[in-house]
Amino acid sequence: MIISAADAAGKLGGTVNGNPGETLSGISDLKGAKEGDVSFILDAKHAGEALKSAAKVIISDSLDSLPGKTVIKVKNARLAYIGAIKLFFPDRQREGFISDRASVSKKASLGKNVVIGDFAVVKDGVVLGDGVLIGDGAVVAENCRVGSGSSVFARVTLYPGTVIGERCIIHSGAVIGADGFGFVENEGSIVKVPQTGNVLIKNDVEIGANTTIDRAAFGSTIIGNSCKLDNLVQIGHNVELGDGVIIAAQTGISGSVKIGNGCLIGGQVGFADHITVGRSVKIGSQSGVSKDTPDGAVISGTPARPLMEQRRTEAYAGKLGELFKRVKAIEADAGKPEDKK
Known about the structure:
CATH topology of the largest domain: UDP N-Acetylglucosamine Acyltransferase, domain 1
Low-confidence stretches: none
Radius of gyration: 27 Å
CATH class of the largest domain: Mainly Beta
Strand order of the largest sheet: 8-11-14-17-20-25-28-31-34-37-39-40
C-alpha cells in the first residue's frame, strides 16, 4: 500500500506540518525505519533520534515540526500509531474454510465464513458464530459457544460448556474450563470436589498463550468485557473479573476472587482466595494480595499495602545495615549489660 502523508493524516485525525505529498509505504520504529516508512515518537526527548532516522514522516503529539522531516501532529501518538499499523496491515476478511482433516460434528452449528484448521475438533452441540476461526489442533468440546468474529488459535482447548463472546482472541495453548482446584481432606485421604460450572468470557477479550481459566464449582467463572490477559496467567474457579481488567504474565488468582472494573495488575501477582478487589485498583508486580482492597487503591509488596507505605518500608529496610552498625557501636560504648552486674 502507498499513501500520501496528507491522506494518512486525514485517516489518523492529524494535521501535516511539512510535505503533504510525501509518500508512505510502510511503518517502523525510528531505528529500523527505511525510506518510505512512517515512524513515531511518544515523547519530545526522542527528537534527536527522529532526526537521525531514515523515516521522512514522523507521527507525534508532542512536537509540531522537525527540521528536514514531515510531522503528522496528532492528539494521541499511541492511538495514531495503532491506526497507522492498521493502514498498512489491515485485518483480513475471512473466507469460510473447513479442513478435510478437521473433525466437525454434524450436531454442531456453524455460522457464515467459519474457518476450521487441520486436526481441529468441534464436538456435539457447539455453536460457532459468523467469521469464527478455530485453529489447527484446537479442541472445542461439547456445548461450547464461540461468538462472531472470535479467534481460537492453534492447540487451544475449550472444555464442555465454555462460552466465548464476540471478537475475542484466544492465543495458542490456552486451556479454558478445566476443573477448578477443589479438594477436601478426609481422614488422611483427599476427596475431589466436583466442578459442575463453566467459564463465561464476554466480548472483546484477549487471552494470552498458555493461560488457564478454571471452570466454576457452581455457576460460572466470569471474564468481563474487554479484559486483556497476558501469557501464563492462572484464573481459579469462580473468579469474577469486571470489565477492562488488564493482567500481566504469571499472575495467579485463587478461587472466588472478585476483581472490579478497570484494574491494572502487574506480572507475578498472587491473590489469596475469597477476596474482593475494588474498581480501578493498580497492583505492582510480584505483589501478594491477601485481603480486600478498596476502589482506586495503588498497592505493592507482599503482603500488598499502599504504594507509598511500601516504598517507605523498602527505604527503611535498605538502612538496616547502617542501623545495625550504629546499635553495635552504642553497645560497645556503653559496655555489655553483663559487664555491669
